[in-house]
Design brief:
- The complex is a heterodimer of chains A (112) and B (111).
- Chain A is built from no helices and eleven strands.
- Chain A has strands at 4-7, 10-13, 18-25, 31-37, 44-50, 53-57, 64-70, 73-79, 87-94, 102-103, 107-111.
- The radius of gyration of chain A is 13 Å and the shape is globular.
- Chain B has 111 residues and is mainly beta.
- Helices cover 0% and strands 55% of the residues of chain B.
- Chain B is built from no helices and eleven strands.
- In chain B, strand 9 (86-92) and strand 10 (100-101) form a beta hairpin.
- Chain B starts with a strand and ends with a strand.
- The chains are: A mainly beta (112), B mainly beta (111).
- The A-B interface holds A 2, 33, 41-43, 45, 48, 56, 90, 96-106 and B 32, 34, 36, 42-46, 49, 89, 93-99, 101-104.
Amino acid sequence: ETGVTQTPRHLVMGMTNKKSLKCEQHLGHNAMYWYKQSAKKPLELMFVYNFKEQTENNSVPSRFSPECPNSSHLFLHLHTLQPEDSALYLCASSQDKGQPQHFGDGTRLSIL
Amino acid sequence: GENVEQHPSTLSVQEGDSAVIKCTYSDSASNYFPWYKQELGKRPQLIIDIRSNVGEKKDQRIAVTLNKTAKHFSLHITETQPEDSAVYFCAASNYGQNFVFGPGTRLSVLP
C-alpha cells in the first residue's frame, strides 16, 4: 500500500518514441520529485516541484520534460531518449522540501 | 552544497550478527538525517530518521546515532535476519532544502 502511485511500472520504447510517465500522490504533500536510479549508482535528483512550481532542474537533458498540473500529479514527458536513459525512474513526495519523502514503486524504462 | 558519503558500499554479515553503515556529510546546517531501505525491485522506504537535536534513536533492532561535531551518522542493525538484505541509503537535508542521498550500501545477510 503506497500513497504514491506511478504508471506504467514498465516501459519499453524506441529512441524516436514519445511517452510519458505519471505520478500521483494522495498524501496532501506540497513537494514532488523525479529521481533516476541506474544500476550501481546513487539516486540522482532530476526535478523538484514545490506548490506546483519547479524549483530545481539538476542539469537534466531537454529530452526529459516535467509537468506538474496540480499538487497531486507529476508527469515526466520523454522524447528522443538514448540507451543510457534506461533506468528506474522514481517519483517521491513530501509535505515540504526537507521533510520525509515517500517514494512510488518506480517505472522501469528500457530504451531500445 | 551538501555532499554525503557512505561506507561501506557492500557489507556481508552472518545471520544474527550486527551491521553498521556509516555516513558523513559536509554541510553543518543539515539537521535531518533519514535512512531508506530498498529491497530488490521495490521502492525505497523510510526505516528510521534522526534530527539534529537528538544523538541517538532506536526502533526495535535498528538504531541511528548522530555526531554533529564530526558530521557523521550511522545505522546500526542488530540480530540481522535474511529479510534485512537490501540496499540502504542515508540522506541529509535542512528544512526547505532537498535531500542529498549517499551512494548506498548493499547489505547481504548470510544464513
